[in-house]
Design goal:
seven-stranded mixed beta sheet; alpha+beta; Glutaredoxin; two-stranded antiparallel sheet; 30% helix; single chain; 151 residues
Length: 151
Amino acid sequence: MIKEDSKAPDFSLQGSDGKTHTLSEFKGKYLVLYFYPKDDTPGCTTEAKCFNGSIMKLRGMGAEVVGVSADSLESHGKFRTKYGLGFLLLSDPGHETIKKYGAYGDRGIFGKGTLRQTFVIGKDGKVLKVFEKVKPDGHDEEVMGFLKSLA
């Protein structure tokens, strides 16, 4: 598990925009890196729609939102289109980055897989806040509250 005030692990993952993305490209902004189990499932859809509804406010606070799951780029594309998501989704089919962040583990009746966790990464690449056991509905408000506390 990644701890607050530690350096965020780097990543190199394919995005829903067809490009490869790394942690360093977000330097100078806050990065809300959220991990979620599966595209187009009830909780994951709720969480994505909440972030999408707050995306302009979050960007106004100097933050970018990026979702990560093990789903394919094709699945991410369908998910973004279906719900009009205006932020990047990254595909980690081998769970490498998911595991680096400690967002992989026992999901009870669903077995092992991606845990719903969010990491707020500072402009300098350090982890400022870790949200574990995230409740999808209203999580965007929780994140915005944390970002406001930094101002």
